[in-house]
């Protein structure tokens, strides 16, 4: 059996679900545009440079979730999916996921975006297994605005994957072939562990790294 891992943002979707969610809230008048834009630009530059403090970012990114009940959030998310996510899921991405599933591979999305945002996206792509940033909840189900456990970011993706594998009584070496598809320099640690790393529409740093190490570079974007 083989294992096929997929990053989500800028890999299986032609955009960033963590960016599209606040855009949606701003459009609904539920988030201050000027304040959010300044802070998000700050964190995005850190992300591109590989210097993002994931806990500082999560404090910022998760706070809006605390303002709504779970029922309100679920209703908002359904609209967000229709307006912001479905239009940026490329056909090639769906086909690649389906090809691995048809081959009998274990398919998983592993992302640094939180489970509230990414869970419905994974289901839309037909992927049951998801490693994402987990969220703390109050007794009534409302989110606290804090992550739970190890965030699945950079080396944290390795930690979380190893935890999942241990729960299955396996290690990565138990799979004949392991694939990881990602666009980001931040995923080089996990890409370096699998037997088949694939750079997908990569950033400049990952593209250079892939070329030096002989990794395939592909595009899943639909033609313009």
TrEMBL record:
Hydrolase keyword on record: yes
Keyword set includes Metal-binding: yes
The record's section on Pfam families has: HAD
GO terms for MF:
hydrolase activity
UniProt EC number: 3.1.3.-
Q: Which Gene3D superfamilies match?
A: HAD superfamily/HAD-like, SG protein - dephosphorylation function
Top-level class of the enzyme under EC nomenclature = hydrolase
The record's listing under CDD domains reads: HAD_PGPPase (cd02612)
Name the UniProt key words of this record, in alphabetical order: Hydrolase, Magnesium, Metal-binding
Q: What is this protein called?
A: HAD family hydrolase
Please tell me the species this chain comes from.
Crenobacter oryzisoli
